[in-house]
Amino acid sequence: MRRLLPWLAGAALVGLPFVYTSPYPLHIMIIILIWSFAYTSWSVMGRFGLTSFGHGGFMGVGAYVTALLWNKAGVSPWLGIPLALVASAALAVLVAYPCFRFRITGHYFSLVTLALSGIVLQVITATRDHTGGSLGYTPERYQGGSSLFALQFGSKTTWYLIALAVWAGGLWVWYRVDRSMLRYALEAISEDEDAAAATGVHVTAEKLKITVLSAAMTAVAGALYCQYQMFISPDTVSGISISLQMVFAVVVGGIYVSLGPTVGAVITILLAEVLRISFGTRAVGYDNLVYGVLLVLFIIFLPKGILGSLWSWGASTWPPKPPNARGAPA
Amino acid sequence: MDIFLLEALINGVLLGGVLALLSLGLNLIFGVIDVVWICYAELIMLGMYGMYFLFSVYHAPLVLAAVVCIALVGVLGVLLHLLVIAPLLGAAPINQLLATGGVLFFLQSAATVLFGIEFKNLGLRLPVLKAAGMFISYSRLLAFAAALIGMVLVYLFLSRTYTGAAIRAIAQDRQIMPLMGVDSRRIYVITSAIGGGLAGLAACLLVLQYDVHPFVGLTFGPITFLICVLGGLGNFGGGFVAAFVFAEIISLGGLYSDLEWGYVLAFAFFIVMMFVRPQGLMARRS
C-alpha cells in the first residue's frame, strides 16, 4: 500500500484537470505547483544548513534571461531556458565559490547571498531600458497565441500538466540527492566542516555541487513562471522579499521532508488567496502580516515545520505498538 | 578638481556618516547577542513613521519628536529581543535569522495595513548650502553631524561606564561573563535598547531626506548588512570604515550614471572584497 500510494496520488493529480476544468482553481493549482518546485529547489540546499537568501536572484535570472532572449533575439525558450539555467549556475559559482573556498558560513553566507538578491534586483531596475525596470516585462506573444516553439499555451490544462511534470521532476531530484553520497557528505559538513574535511570530504566541491544544482532548478522555476504568467517584474520573481518568501514557505512546510516545501506552498498561497478574496483590495498587506507572525511562531514552537512535525509525531505513535511489544516474536 | 566630483565626494562622506550609524547599531547587536536583526531597517521605517506622525500630524516640535521617536524605537528593540530573540537564544543561528525575517514581513505589512502605501514626508524643506559652486543640503549635513554625535555617545558609553564595559566583555566571551557576575539577560536587554535607539536616531535623520513608505526599509536594509559583513560582523571599526567606502562608491557611481548603478557597483565591490578579505576589511590575519 505504501509503495502504491505515490503512484495513485500521481495518477489522481494527472487526471484532475480532465475531470475538473474550472479555470480559477486550476490557475491556483498551477501557481502552487510552480512555487512548490521553486521551494523544493531551495530546500535541496537549504536542508543542509546552507541558508541562501539569494534564490530570488537565481529565479530572476531564470525569468529575465529567458524572456530577454525571446524578445530581443527570437531565441525559443527551449534553448532560452537551458541558457538561463547556465547563466544562473554561473552566477551561483561566481558567488558561492569564494564563499565556500574562504569558509564563509552561517550568518555570513546568508548575508552574502542576501547581497546577491539585492544585486540582481538593482541590475534589473538599473537596466530599465531593456528590462522595463520595476514596471515589469512581458514576453511577446507568438502570433497564434499557443505555440510549442514559443512555449506559450492558452490552455490551462496544458500548463497544469507541464507544471505537474516539472514539480514531480523536482521531487525526483530531491529523492536522488536524499539517496546519494552527496547527502551524507553535506550532512557531515553541516555538522562540522573540519571533521568532515578530515574524513576525506571535499568540502568546497560538495557544497558547490549542491548550490549549482539548486540555483539551476530555481532558474527553471523562474522561467516557467515567466512563460505561464507572461509578465514578470522585479518584485514578483526577484529580490529580497521573494528570497525570504522561499525560506519562509519551506520552514512552515518542513525543511527536512520531501513534501515540506510543497505543503508550505499550498499553505502560503491558499492563505494569500483566501485573504485576498475575503478582504478584497483592503487586504493589501494582510497576507504578509499573517505570514510574518506564523513564521516567528513556527520558528519558536515548531522548527521542524508542519509536515516534519506530523511525520515525527506519526513515526512515534503510528503504527501503534502492542502493549507487550518487547516480548512478542518478530 | 572637477566641481561635480568634489560635490559627489562630499555627499559620499555625508551619506557615509548615516550608513556608519546604521551599521553601528547592527554590529552592536551582533557583537553582543550574536544575532542578526534582518528586520533592522524595518525598525527604522517605523521610526520614520513615528517622526512623520509626531511632527506633521500632531505638530510636536522637531527635537521633541526626535527624542520620543528614539525612545519608542528603543522600546521596540527591547520588545523584539524579549518576544522573538530571547526564546531562540539557544536555537540554531539560522532559526534566529529566519525569525527576524518573519518580523520583517510582519512590520512591513503592519505598516502597509496601518499607514497605507502612500509616500509620506515631513513637508519640511531645509535650505541648501551653496559654497564654491557646490550644493550641499543642510539635511545631509545635519544627518552627518547627528550621526557622528550619536556614535561618539555610544563609544563613550561603551568605554567609560561599567555597563558599557560589561557589554564589551560579553561581546568577547559569552560563556565566561555570566560566571563573573554579569547578568547577561540584563545586558542583552540594554544592548537591544541601544541598538533600537540607534535605529530610531537613524530614522530621525533619514526622514529629513527621504519619503517614508512601508517598503523603505528595503532601500537601507541590504546595504547595511553588506557594510557590516564587509567590515566584519561585530567589528565596530571595520563597519565604520566600510560605511564610508560604500557611500563613496554609491555616490561616485551615481555621479557617472544612474543611482542604481552606484548600488550595483557597490554590491559588485562587496563580492570582490569577499574574495580578497573574507573576514572583513579590518580583520587581523589569524
What does this structure look like?
The complex is a heterodimer of chains A (330) and B (286). Helices cover 74% and strands 0% of the residues of chain A. Chain A has 330 residues and is mainly alpha-helical. The longest helix of chain A is centred in the middle third of the chain and has 27 residues. Chain B has eleven helices and two strands; from the N terminus they run ααααββααααααα. Chain B has a two-stranded antiparallel ribbon with strand order 1-2. In chain B, a hairpin with a 2-residue loop joins strand 1 and strand 2. In chain B, helix 2 packs parallel to helix 4 and helix 9 runs parallel beside helix 11. Chain B starts with a helix and ends in a 10-residue tail after the last helix. The interface between A and B is large, with 48 and 50 residues.
CATH topology of chain B: ABC transporter involved in vitamin B12 uptake, BtuC
The SSE order of chain A reads: HHHHHHHHHHHHHHH
Distance between the termini of chain B: 41 Å
Biggest pleated sheet of chain A: none
Poorly predicted runs of chain A are 322-330
Radius of gyration of chain B from CA coordinates? 19 Å
Q: How would you describe the shape of chain B?
A: globular
Helix content of chain B: over 70%
Pick out the low-confidence regions of chain B: none
Give the helix proportion of chain A (percent range). over 70%
Secondary-structure class of chain A: mainly alpha
Largest chain-chain contact? A-B, 48 and 50 residues
Structural class of chain B: mainly alpha
Distance between the termini of chain A: 21 Å
Rg of chain A: 21 Å
* Percentage of residues in DSSP E strands of chain A: under 5%
Strand order of the largest sheet of chain B: 1-2
Chain-averaged pLDDT of chain B: 83
Note the overall shape of chain A.
globular
